[in-house]
Amino acid sequence: MCERYHPGLVKALAEIPYAERERPGGPGIALFREYGGVGLLVPAEYGGHGAGPLDAVRVQRALGALSPSLAAAVTMHHFTVAMLFALAADGGRLSPAQLDLLHRVVPDQLLLASGWAEGRTQQNILAPSVTARPVPGGYRLSGAKKPCSLASSMNLLTASISVPGEDGAPELALALVPATSEGLSVHPFWGNDLLAAAESDEVRLEDVFVPEELVVRTSAEDPGRLDDLQTAGFIWFEMLVSAGYAGAAASLVELVLERDRGAAAERAALAVACEAGFALLEGAARAVADGEEGEAAVAGVLVARYALQDSLARTTDQALELLGGMDFIRSSDHVRQAASARPLAFHPPGRGAAAEPLLAYFGGGALELS
């Protein structure tokens, strides 16, 4: 599936040693651009592939199998693209300047980073993390996003902000901030060897001016558009980030099968567990593709994500055990790959934060994630 959408990318990544793929400043993001990765979810009328949810999670699994860092990084681009193009889908909802940016994503291979809150386990990924001060012609933004994947390679930062509404009450808005903006800077932040190639550093905004035409706001005619945006973005984020980590585990399972490690029953049980976990995610993606939305879709992707999260821990542990002690002694690559599947637990919403909202939903109430 990855080869279908991005011919040559799998081969290019596989030819690079694993440690090189995963090092800070590794080549994965540049290769992703070179092989047209930015356009996976961009609609065809904007020059992209317009991939659906099922194809997208399969492509992400392939990337995660080759480079967990790359899969984690580009999740932020893809879910941001999905949200922005959803706003443009019915026409007239974006300004000419905003539409111009969207038309440039594929031709210019623009990478969009997310200035939202995915690094904080107990926080809503779409909670505003940047303050906005109204000034003539636009807003002055201040704040920091840490970690912010794609920090060094991004062309555009999307940041949720709070702005005064028509009645003076705070209102959610979305700012599109060019990476070259004066006052925007990148600073070292990521200290772990795992996922080090995702460029998850600090992006700092110091009184950055963003013109009004690059701020997406609600309107009296369409008061729910950013609420819809948040829900759609959340669903895409959970599907894509889960798929990338699933790939890291699947690659280890594949090695066990290729090397005939352990008894046939052990190998089969391992493969079944691996495929069962991903099948849950595929099921959620199919439901979204078939039109499921709102709370039902959110609950579906969370169920799949948490079940997969448990499955990844079991399958990676068993895969390492079957690969054996000599594999462990000869190289740290597979241990690193197994550990790279674990950070799914750190993406929001954490299991604890989602427990009561899910219980309320399962009991017939509303699903209200804070």
- Give the full name of the CATH homologous superfamily of the largest domain: Butyryl-CoA Dehydrogenase, subunit A, domain 3
Q: Which descriptor suits the 3D outline? A: globular
Q: How many beta-strand segments? A: 8
Strand content: 5-15%
Under the CATH scheme, which class of the largest domain?
Mainly Alpha
Ends distance: 35 Å
Q: What's the overall average pLDDT, rounded?
A: 91
Structural class: alpha+beta
Order of helical and strand elements:
HHHHHHHEEEEEEEEHHHHHH
Largest sheet: 8 strands, mixed
Radius of gyration from CA coordinates: 20 Å
Oligomeric state of the chains present here = single chain
What is the correct CATH architecture of the largest domain?
Up-down Bundle
Report the CATH topology name of the largest domain: Butyryl-CoA Dehydrogenase, subunit A, domain 3
Count of the separate structural domains: 3
Fraction in helix: 40-55%
What would a concise description of this structure say?
Helices cover 49% and strands 15% of the residues. With 370 residues, the protein is α+β, with helices and mostly antiparallel strands. It has three domains: 2-104, Butyryl-Coa Dehydrogenase, subunit A, domain 1, CATH 1.10.540; 112-216, Butyryl-CoA Dehydrogenase, subunit A, domain 2, CATH 2.40.110; 225-362, Up-down Bundle (Butyryl-CoA Dehydrogenase, subunit A, domain 3).
